[in-house]
Amino acid sequence: MGDIILILLLLGITYATGSILEKNHFKNIKQREIALVKKPVVSFGKKLTTDKKVKKVEFVTGEVVISGDYFKTFVSSFRNFFGGRMVSFESLMDRARREAILRMREKAKNANIIVNTRLESTMLNNCDDTSNNQLPQVAVIAYGTAITYER
What we know:
- A four-stranded mixed beta sheet has the order 1-3-4-2.
- It is built from three helices and four strands.
- The chain has about 150 residues and is of the alpha+beta class.
């Protein structure tokens, strides 16, 4: 009985700390997105036409690696056994994508627009293999062409 209480206590602690860290990261992402609301604009493939003269063109990237927490790993092991969507990792992927785009935009802060933006992602270790005590990690890279127009 004592072992079950200990396991439940540890799961509660990991849930609380993981939730707090995730909420703080989402809050930080939202603040940075608001600060960059107008500059630079990101285009995911729309055709743009303009008569403005181009001053500078550069390739910009934003990379991030984000790890899950022990509670999400525990929950996903049950989901993996019974089948279904890995809902616990959807917020992890959302955070990683948004963070990568923000880092790319921050590198191109003087640009007017970033065109042909692409996102690439990969899992760095297996989500359902908890035998080696590794937490799942996702790597995301956002890249595009930053264009600065003459005034």
